[in-house]
Design brief:
alpha+beta; Glutaredoxin; Glutathione S-transferase Yfyf (Class Pi), Chain A, domain 2; 2 domains; four-stranded mixed β-sheet; two-stranded antiparallel sheet; 6 strands; 35% helix; 7% strand
Length: 330
């Protein structure tokens, strides 16, 4: 997918696994400032990023689960009129995440950029590292605020409260400890776990990661047999962090990432839970399994040199989910 070195884009596909162990190692996100209600510093980075209508712009891809979670929370928190968005074309190229300004769906209405890496060099002419979505951009200071999805969704949850219509609190104070416990387990075992399996270059590294993926799914299945949502009886950020991985599981990770011990549809509670979240207002519009597959089966000399995209599987997220029984039991 390429990488930037000293502000210059290099098209060579950068290895994602450690040469000695074959284990995938995810690099930490480089930009870690926070948008806050009054512009004060957040948990990391510097201050000066006050929540204001129209000031911030979100760069995403439909195929990327990390970007998907920010688009979901932007919709749930009703921030569409406050935070702009640019959606990358479905398939990556040697330029990484790209935009087609001849189309409305995949153009960049902000600057008309053709590749996301040009935005990174605008923010930091000497930047070295990966160019990733989501990227939250400040149009006032013309710089990247943050490219860590787990932090962007927390900003979206509360920073814009004074400007947005009323919406549910997805990170309530009384559940934060539980939410973070769930997030830690699902991030390592599922969200990042599928990548650790899919990008592994050694058999033992792959098997270690893949088995942890299914241990995590088994844990989630058991948890969801007793309660409606991952952190209890209320929808929280824990659910919206898990959903993008779950909704891609059967169409992408089972095949492209070799996570094929079981399918999501083999888990009754997880499958019902995923369908329930899919059927919530505004969520279905963010899900496109065809684009998911086109993204995960993009041409890659390491993983898919032919670029062939599979026909299946056929998935129906619209059927009855059966989760109401847990609300009644609670």
């Amino acid at each position: 997918m390429g990488i930037m070195v000293d502000g210059v884009w290099h098209t060579d596909e950068a290895p994602l696994a450690d040469d000695k162990t074959g284990r995938f190692i995810r690099k930490e996100s480089a930009f870690r400032n926070w948008v806050t209600a009054d512009g004060s510093p957040g948990p990391s980075g510097e201050g000066g990023f006050k929540a204001e209508p129209g000031r911030y712009h979100l760069y995403i891809s439909i195929s990327c689960p990390w970007a998907h979670r920010t688009r979901l929370v932007r919709a749930i928190k009703r921030l569409e009129d406050l935070v702009g968005i640019s959606i990358a074309t479905p398939r990556r190229t040697d330029q990484g995440w790209t935009y087609d300004n001849s189309t409305e769906a995949y153009g960049d209405p902000l600057y008309g950029i053709e590749a996301l890496h040009t935005l990174y060099s605008r923010a930091d002419p000497d930047y070295s590292g990966r160019v990733t979505v989501p990227t939250l951009w400040d149009t006032q200071r013309e710089t990247i605020v943050n490219n860590e999805s787990s932090e962007i969704i927390r900003m979206f949850n509360d920073a814009f409260a004074a400007h947005a219509p009323a919406s549910p609190d997805l990170y309530p104070a009384d559940l934060r400890d539980e939410i973070e416990r769930v997030n830690e387990r699902t991030y390592e075992g599922l969200n990042n776990g599928v990548y650790r399996a899919g990008f592994a270059t050694a058999q033992d590294a792959y098997e270690e990661a893949a088995r942890q993926v299914f241990e995590t799914l088994d844990w989630m299945e058991d948890r969801l047999s007793k309660q409606r949502y991952l952190a209890g009886d209320r929808l929280t950020l824990a659910d919206w962090r898990a959903f993008p991985t779950l909704v891609r599981f059967d169409c992408a990770y089972v095949g492209a990432f070799k996570c094929n011990l079981r399918r999501l549809i083999d888990y009754p509670n997880l499958w019902g839970y995923t369908r329930e979240l899919y059927q919530m207002p505004g969520v279905a519009e963010t899900v496109d399994t065809d684009i998911f597959k086109r993204g995960y089966y993009s041409i890659s000399q390491i993983r898919n040199p032919t670029g062939i995209v599979p026909l299946g599987p056929e998935l129906d997220f619209t059927g009855p989910h059966g989760r109401d029984r847990l609300a009644a039991a609670a």
